[in-house]
Amino acid sequence: MAVTRTTKRVIREYGNPITMNYVQTLLLMGLARPSSTKMVAGAFYIPKHNPSMPLGQDSHFILPGAHTVGVADGVGGWSKRGIDAGIYARELMRNAVLAIRRQLQSEGSVDPTAALDEAYVDTDEPGSSTACILTLVDDVVRAVNVGDSGFVILRGGRVCYRTPVQQTRFNCPVQLGRDSDDSSVAEEIEVAVEPGDVVVMATDGLFDNVHQEELERLVQEDAAGGGIKNPGNLAAKIARYALRNAINGEIETPFSVESRKAGVDPEAVGGKYDDITVIVAYIMRPSKKRRRMNQ
């Protein structure tokens, strides 16, 4: 049974992965499709140290030929019941990849919303998770998002779009799961992009610990550097920066600011130690040879 989208947001803005241990990156090669732009992506994952959950609770994938990426963040509250929500997140992303594979074989294109719908239905593990899936179609990124994972788009080193955070209350994201919400809570997003734009998709381990202006500075530094750009290297730089902030108890972070606003801790300072997943994708023109083949 198809689910009905309860919220829809359509926004148009005009104007080889580096990994750590336990990274869950699924690479699906050979499923390329013609496009006037291409997306080159790399990822970096830093799992929160926890001997009982060595894989952490984040999961992600990159499908290079399909110009599609995704992240999920298992909700940590399940650990109080002895459940590792990271297993749910990994199964959700695995099922999303399988759904996308079927779409490409039958339709030749990616529908992020349908992929997340199918992944939700096919995931039977206990737990719950946030989720974000994004694909590039010509000069538009199409995405579906649930919870406080998400992405930003930077143009000229400045954020020109950011996904809204979905929370039921402070530090409690909207989430997918058998005992939580279904995929009808997902928000659909379309944003026009240009060659030169940078997409940064991440779990809240980034967004809770790095201010927007800090992220902009990191992307600007990457753009100013010489040599061939590697999105995996930038993802690693951003993730490590987020980790430094997360374990610093004396700085002001987005998490401490929001904690004070919510009245949870009027004197809150410091970061939030968490799993950190960062995917960086460069929006680029295809090679001249590729463009001639598509004409």
Automatic annotation (TrEMBL):
<dbReference type="GO" id="GO:0046872">
    <property type="term" value="F:metal ion binding"/>
</dbReference>
<protein>
    <recommendedName>
        <fullName>Protein phosphatase</fullName>
        <ecNumber>3.1.3.16</ecNumber>
    </recommendedName>
</protein>
<dbReference type="InterPro" id="IPR039123">
    <property type="entry name" value="PPTC7"/>
</dbReference>
<feature type="domain" description="PPM-type phosphatase">
    <location>
        <begin position="40"/>
        <end position="283"/>
    </location>
</feature>
<dbReference type="Pfam" id="PF07228">
    <property type="entry name" value="SpoIIE"/>
</dbReference>
<keyword id="KW-0479">Metal-binding</keyword>
<dbReference type="InterPro" id="IPR036457">
    <property type="entry name" value="PPM-type-like_dom_sf"/>
</dbReference>
<keyword id="KW-0464">Manganese</keyword>
<comment type="similarity">
    <text>Belongs to the PP2C family.</text>
</comment>
<keyword id="KW-0904">Protein phosphatase</keyword>
<dbReference type="InterPro" id="IPR001932">
    <property type="entry name" value="PPM-type_phosphatase-like_dom"/>
</dbReference>
<keyword id="KW-0460">Magnesium</keyword>
<dbReference type="GO" id="GO:0004722">
    <property type="term" value="F:protein serine/threonine phosphatase activity"/>
</dbReference>
<keyword id="KW-0378">Hydrolase</keyword>
